[in-house]
Amino acid sequence: MTSTPPRTTDRPTHRRAPAGTTALRLGLLALVAIGIGGAALELAFERHWQSFTQLIPWFALALLVAALALLALRDSPRVVTVVRVLAGAVLLASAYGVFMHVSVNHGMGGMDSSWDSLTPLTQWWYALTKSVGNAPPLAPGMLAQSSLLLLLASLISKTKPAS
pLDDT tens digits, residue range 48-86? Predict the structure, then answer.
């Protein structure tokens, strides 16, 4: 009588993640989708397409849409890596957008006769808080928020390896 050793496979079997984890992941993905929709509407309402620089957030939104679709459909390690790279690129674009908006607002401060009497810190504070200028510095932050939510969602797997 001979016994056969148990079969081992190279590929792990997967089980569904716990319901709470799945709900959290879906909630994060839904928040990303809402953020994308809100940012797109804001950009459209502002007619934010007059120059190449104004097209950057549209490209960033396209990257977010692609990353969201990838992560929603699949969560293989390769897909998760691609999603994280895309979200990182959008974070960089968002930081650039905040910088540009604050810089434009700071430049508009020169039109005020009392601008030069303010300290540089006060000038930059006014530019950041939109006390001068019309560019909303926090609008690009919507892209950053969606990117960070997508990064968080990428940490939660749809399936977990069997132990």
Answer: 899 998 999 999 999 999 999 999 998 889 999 999 999
Q: Which of 143, 134, 135, 144 lies closest to 58, judged by CA?
A: 143
CB 105 within 8 A of CB 135: yes
> In the numeric block, which tokens belong to residue 132?
């001068």
Look up the pTM and report it: 0.78
Neighbours of 43 (CB within 10 A): 20
What is the amino acid identity at position 41? L
User: Residue 5: which H helix or E strand, with range?
Assistant: none
Residues facing residue 15 across a β-bridge? 160
Write the DSSP symbol of residue 134: S
- 120-128 vs 77-109: helix axis angle to the nearest 10? 120
